[in-house]
Specification:
Elements (H helix, E strand, L loop, with lengths): L5 H9 L1 H14 L7 H14 L3 H13 L4 H57 L7
Helix pairs in contact: 1-2, 3-4, 3-5
Length: 134
């Protein structure tokens, strides 16, 4: 006998109302609509991969196969998930560049401030007659 999935066991442990609400929500989302059940199952596989949930990936792969998805379709969905995951990693890594750019902007502002102070001092000295314009 197959054991229930952990999310189902968890919602059952919380209580009947939560379990019922979770199952109703899942049923509403996973029924045929603008997307077929097969398409939704492929999305579920990709999402499970993107969030790195191995048990979820296996459950959704099994469901996708039951709904007629080919292994090739599942692998393609998995590749899209991997790409999204890698892209989100690059997005996070970009913070390193932003930090460098912020540091560079701060340094640039300091240089500008020094130049402005120097120019103001030179203007003051010029107006006092201590400097000539040649």
């Amino acid at each position: 006998m197959e054991q229930k999935a952990k999310p189902n066991r968890f919602t059952e442990a919380i209580g009947e109302e939560v379990d019922s609400a979770f199952k109703k929500l899942a049923s509403e989302i996973l029924k045929d609509g603008a997307l077929t059940l097969k398409e939704k199952s492929l999305i579920a596989v990709a999402c499970a991969i993107a969030v790195r949930c191995d048990p979820c990936t296996r459950v959704h792969q099994k469901q996708a196969l039951k709904l007629g998805a080919s292994q090739e379709e599942i692998l393609e969905a998995a590749a899209v998930a991997g790409l999204v995951r890698m892209g989100s990693g690059f997005n996070t890594a970009y913070a390193l560049l932003e930090e460098d750019m912020t540091r560079t902007r701060v340094q640039y502002k300091k240089i500008l401030m020094k130049r402005r102070r120097k120019m103001n001092l030179l203007k003051t000295e010029y107006h006092r007659g201590n400097l000539t314009d040649t």
